[in-house]
Amino acid sequence: MAAPESETVKPKPEATKSTAADGGNANKADATKYVGTPAVGTSKAAAAGGLGTVGPEPSAANERRRRLVWCSVTAFLGAWVIAFLRFFLSRTLFEPPTIFKIGYPSDYALGVDSKFQQRYRIWVDRTPDRIFVIYARCTHLGCTPDWKASENKFKCPCHGSGYDSEGINFEGPAPRPMDRANVQLAPDGQIIVDTSRLFSWPKGQPSRFNDPGSYLPV
Amino acid sequence: MASCFQSALHNLRETKVWKSVFRRGPANTNRTRSLAIFGNLFLHWMPVKVREKSLRVRASYYLGSISFILFIVLFVTGILLMFYYHPAAPNAYRDMKDLQFVVANGVFLRNLHRLAAHLMVFAVFWHMFHVFYRGGYKPPHEFNWVVGVVLLLLTLFLSYTGYLLPWDQLAFWAVTVGTNIISAMPFIGHKVRFLLLGGNIVGENALLRFYVLHVVILPLAAFVLIGIHFWRVQKDGGLTVKPKDEDGKE
Ligand code: HEM
Ligand code: FES
Fold first, then answer.
1. For residue A174, how far is its CA from the centre of ligand 2 (angstroms)?
2. Beta carbons of B81 and B99 less than 8 angstroms apart
3. Which of A104, A162, B92, B128 is least surrounded by CB atoms within 10 angstroms?
4. What are the residues of chain A with a beta carbon less than 8 Å away from any beta carbon of chain B?
């Protein structure tokens, strides 16, 4: 496409001409190599304007002052940012209660009862000598396993950990048995469960499953 | 016909409005072509000159550009999905179902967003491997490699945060498992998990936090870094062209 005009861009002569020392022969000044006016504040623009270096002289005292100012500003902003991070940790949480009643010991027959799995994420387990509450959280990465009554075991759908009817792991990646929640008898005779106080049996460490509060003797 | 179009274009270029927007005359010499690129915000990212060899398929497989196009697709479809999505329980799950079954073109948009997300992870990885095997990380491209690593992480975080938003079983347990992996970090793991979820469980706070990360913070960061990434490709002297590309016919 042959456009009617060719090489139309001309440097604007008036931008630099008047300041050039030899008046009129603008080609000598560096700034005329630019199209239009050199950006304000650049050394080229300063040179074209006949100015020397701009700003305070680089003396040692000025260096110290500058460093002081920058250190103060950085320290202030840094401290403020760190204090502000507290913003991201909520002061109030609207999460389900961790303490609740689950009825009377006589409500539970031998074996695993999963009626509170949906509501409180627990199973109530009765053996010949005790009642305890398993916190229904896989010790691998925290999914809720399923109680498979026909196979008499808990099976985690996430990566396949298996636990026996007392929550002791025997297959899959789970590193330890499922934790048990604190249980107590309320004055009215009901069982109170507190899932914020858990008893565990980490691998290679003593079991806390016989600690007081981890079960109710029957 | 052609000359009629040309003269119309010429007349348009003579108008005051055109001149005030574009400033330059027609780009018909090398000099004016360069100026046209420098003077345009959207083009100044681009090199003024490109070596022909770096445009061959073999030089890049266009993988970086494909990643970028997918990012744009995700940006557009994501904004459209935001018109119907509430980051709250139980609305989030129902909104997803509405998008699938009620909203006109909703299922198309949702699937496009999801598909492009999967493809982008794939494309970004492939781009990285390709750059690696061509030695594209070597000086002076080291800094751009680092920018690229951050972009890869951002791509993965975008995928992960987006995965929670449908609020279905898959989303819920994936984020439960993922954030429990985080809490295995020594010393600060549990704090980081609490920070990310805004609580101890994957609940409404977690959904809202992931939403904010997914639709604002991470895309913004990715957008800025992609700008730097492109700009650096140009400043580092264009793509790596190997001697063997000289003789080889594509
Ligand atoms: C959001 C993701 C990304 C986008 C949109 C993107 C985009 C691009 C584009 C368009 C190019 C130029 C042409 C090409 O090679 O295809 C490029 C080059 C490059 N990218 Fe990326 N990229 C991304 C992620 C990455 C990652 C994960 C790495 C590596 C860790 C990386 C490292 C590089 C390097 C080193 C170059 C220069 C290659 C050379 O000089 O040969 N980028 N990128
Ligand atoms: S979370 Fe149960 S097996 Fe991984």
1. 7
2. yes
3. A104
4. 1-9, 35, 88-90, 93-96, 141-143, 158
> Is B32 in contact with A4 (Cβ distance < 8 A)?
no
Q: What is the CATH number of domain B59-239?
A: 1.20.810.10
Shortest alpha-carbon distance between residue B149 and chain A (Å) = 26
Q: Is residue A162 lining ligand 2, measured as CB closer than 6 Å? A: no
Rounded CA gap, B108 and B155, in Å?
A: 22
Q: What would the two tokens of residue A174 be?
A: 């789970």
Question: Which residues on B lie below 8 Å from A9 (Cβ)?
Answer: 24-25, 31-32, 35
| Separation between Cα atoms, residue B51 and residue B239, nearest integer Å | 9
Q: Residue A143: which of B176, B195, B198 has the nearest Cβ?
A: B176
- Residue-wise pLDDT for A48-74, tens only, equals 666 656 667 778 888 899 999 999 999
- Quickly count: other Cβ atoms within 10 Å of residue B40's Cβ: 15
What proportion of chain A, given as a percentage, has pLDDT over 70? 75
Q: Domain segments of chain B: what residues?
A: 59-239
Tokens of B106: 């909703």
Residue B191, token pair as written in the block:
């704090």
The length of chain A is 218
What residues form DSSP beta bridges with A130?
A: A127, A217
How far apart, in Å, are the Cα atoms of A11 and each of A48, A183, B19, B87? 14, 88, 16, 56
Mapping DSSP onto H, E and C, the string for B140-202 reads CCHHHHHHHHHHHHHHHHHHHHHHHCCCCHHHHHHHHHHHHHHCCCCCCHHHHHHHHHCCCCC
Q: Is B67 in the pocket of ligand 1 (CB under 6 A)?
A: yes
**Nearest Cα to B147, choosing from B15, B35, B236?**
B236
* Interface residues from chain B to A (CB-CB < 8 Å): 6, 10, 24-26, 28-29, 31-32, 35, 173, 176-177, 180-181, 194-195, 198-201, 203-205
* Distance in angstroms (rounded) separating the CA atoms of residues A150 and B186: 40
The pLDDT tens digits for A151-181 are 999 999 999 999 999 999 999 999 999 999 9
User: Which residue's entry shows tokens 């003579």?
Assistant: B14
Q: Closest Cα to residue A138, out of A124, A157, A120, A152?
A: A157
What does the DSSP 8-state code read for residue A209? Answer: T
Answer for the pair B246, B53: CB distance below 8 angstroms, yes or no. yes
Total H helices, total E strands in chain B: 13, 0
Q: How far apart are CA A215 and CA A167, in angstroms?
A: 14
C-alpha triplet B45, B47, B51: angle, nearest 5°: 150
> Could you tell me the sign of the dihedral formed by the alpha carbons of A187, A191, A196, A200, in that order?
positive
